[in-house]
Amino acid sequence: MPYSTLAIHQLANMTEQETHLAPDAPFTVRQAHTVMQFHVACRAKKCPRKAAALQALSDAGRVVPSTSKPR
């Protein structure tokens, strides 16, 4: 279900567990950026969706994951 604002989507993310599931196919860079924005409050260690987005951005050379501070 699409949401009109980031705040509403984030609220839905906190209440709907399926929004944290890993995707069936790897994210595009654009999709990964959007997921990272929507899951800003999540930790990649606990949220498979954010972890997949972080991996897609890392693979594309758009982000270098921190070795000292987990996301």
Automatic annotation (TrEMBL):
It comes from the Bacteria. This is Uncharacterized protein. The lineage of its organism: Bacteria, Bacillati, Actinomycetota, Actinomycetes, Mycobacteriales.
